[in-house]
């Protein structure tokens, strides 16, 4: 199904699925940057790895916050990619600032910001992709999940070439942030799907819905 076209100019399940796949590629890149750059981030802060481990608590809290916000926005801002695009910009801001942090509280705030945006992307991306392909969502969900894998695989390669080229981890984070911003803006040109009626769901989904209702 399609939503309102206030800002959108293209529509269709194929375009929507492709858009969410690109979104998940960027998401995978952001998450994939963390591992290979963690030693450099620790050096920037001049703390032990044990102390730096608290960033994963900030990531967890950000992800939960984003997921809750993403679900709420699906209900209250239906048929629009504005919340999705905005969350991409929020995640990009956090990603942009992470390599600049020189204190532990600062990097905790930046990770929380990035993962809050990513939480919305994950929640809304999966749900909207399911709505766009209501009759048979499984292949589309597999495709966007594959996009995440591509992004996570690409992130260490980006870090390597940025280090070799003199850009360092700052260049890697900023490149991914720039790509993310461009992707977020492009989302505004894509028509957003709306929640399909039960009659539009494929048989497996209808069986699950009926089982839950009982």
TrEMBL record:
Transmembrane segments: 20-41, 53-74, 86-111, 118-134, 140-162, 169-190
One Gene Ontology MF term: transmembrane transporter activity
Record carries keyword Magnesium: no
Record keywords, A-Z: Membrane, Transmembrane, Transmembrane helix
Domain of life where this protein originates: Eukaryota
Gene3D superfamilies listed in its UniProt record: MFS general substrate transporter like domains (1.20.1250.20)
Coiled-coil stretches noted in the UniProt entry, renumbered to this chain: none
Name of the protein in question: Major facilitator superfamily (MFS) profile domain-containing protein
């Amino acid at each position: 199904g399609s939503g309102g076209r206030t800002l959108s100019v293209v529509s269709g399940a194929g375009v929507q699925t492709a858009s969410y796949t690109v979104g998940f590629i960027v998401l995978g890149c952001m998450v994939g940057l963390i591992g290979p750059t963690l030693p450099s981030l620790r050096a920037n802060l001049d703390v032990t790895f044990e102390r730096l481990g608290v960033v994963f608590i900030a990531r967890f809290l950000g992800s939960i916050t984003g997921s809750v916000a993403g679900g709420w926005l699906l209900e209250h801002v239906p048929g629009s990619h504005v919340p999705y695009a905005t969350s991409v910009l929020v995640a990009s801001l956090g990603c942009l600032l992470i390599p600049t942090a020189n204190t532990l509280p600062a990097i905790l705030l930046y990770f929380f910001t990035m993962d809050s945006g990513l939480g919305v992307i994950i929640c809304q991306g999966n749900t909207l992709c399911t709505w766009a392909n209501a009759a048979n969502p499984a292949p589309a969900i597999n495709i966007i999940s594959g996009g995440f894998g591509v992004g996570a695989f690409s992130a260490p390669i980006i870090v390597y070439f940025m280090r070799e080229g003199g850009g360092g981890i700052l260049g890697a984070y900023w490149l991914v942030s720039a790509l993310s911003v461009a992707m977020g803006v492009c989302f505004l040109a894509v028509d957003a799907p709306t929640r399909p009626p039960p009659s539009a769901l494929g048989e497996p989904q209808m069986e699950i819905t009926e089982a839950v209702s009982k």
